[in-house]
Amino acid sequence: MADSPSRVERPLSPHLQIYKPLFTMMMSIVHRITGVGLYFGMVIFVWWLLAAAGSPDGFATFSSVAGSFIGYIVLFGLTWALLHHAIGGIRHFIWDMIHGFGPQERELLAKATLAGSVVLTLVVWAIGLALKA
Amino acid sequence: MSNPTHAPMRTPLGRVRGLGSARSGTEHFFVQRLTALANLILTVAFIIIVISLAGASYAETRAMLGNPFVAVIILLTLLSVSIHMRIGMQVVIEDYVHAEGLKVLLIIANTFFTTAIALAGAFAVLKISLGG
Fold it and tell me: What is the pTM of this model?
């Protein structure tokens, strides 16, 4: 602290509202939103674990909430968020290896992330519902 | 800078070895990628476990979670995910919350929340596994 300069008013870089929304930019924002969604979604996962560790009554409560219409919508959304964030993470690994920064490449990666997450979500749910039936 | 007679005695190398003014250097950057890789592997196993338990009964769920292999996968997931979500949320807080006091409070709350998530989940898995 002794050698740090005192706080100076520095110019701020232009923020979101300055730019025209671009697809890659929206995907970057979605990566952050899905991360935040999953953060709070972990409460449902831990509730499931605690319910299984507790009484049959508590587990029945969890099952009825998770199996309800709203429960399905939330779980479907979380599945997509998880897969989107995971594939988005692979995209970040590609960037970390200093690849995929070209104009076409980054558009392609962004599209692949979105398409991949949607397709995989549908596949996961198709398998899950088939196993449940 | 403002006081030339009182020049810093620490060299740039010394500051870096002390991990800079944030006292953590590139640790968050590296750990976020390390846990991301772990999460990627664990998520595949996690999705398979959850899918196979879709609509499962209390007894079926406990039998599956009590399997040592499944229990270890879930414990590893809780460890890796809780570290990853703590760092991720801290970045979000630091980006959007500029009031110093609120920012510090939220970062503390973030640590409490992610620790509670990890510990509660791990306790549940261990309780089922070790026969509770």
Answer: 0.85
